[in-house]
């Protein structure tokens, strides 16, 4: 299966890039799209048990709390 049939083809509409320039542009665009896809997947997934449970562990810092801990 070639890339054009997958819908991932990049079409140059202006200029005359060298094969190296085209490869570099393709790599940058694919990396950016992969990163966006990963962000989308993370936003849609349910939080893990660790992520849900750790919320209860955090408490606001209080002035002088370090001194009370050592007593």
Automatic annotation (TrEMBL):
This is Acyl-CoA carboxylase subunit epsilon. It holds the Pfam family ACC_epsilon. It comes from the Bacteria. InterPro entries: ACC_epsilon.
């Amino acid at each position: 299966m070639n890339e054009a049939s997958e819908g991932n083809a990049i079409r140059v509409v202006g200029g005359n890039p060298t094969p190296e320039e085209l490869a570099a542009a393709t790599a940058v665009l694919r990396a950016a799209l992969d990163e966006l896809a990963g962000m989308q997947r993370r936003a849609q997934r349910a939080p893990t048990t660790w992520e849900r449970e750790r919320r209860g562990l955090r408490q606001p810092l209080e002035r002088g709390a370090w001194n009370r801990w050592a007593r």
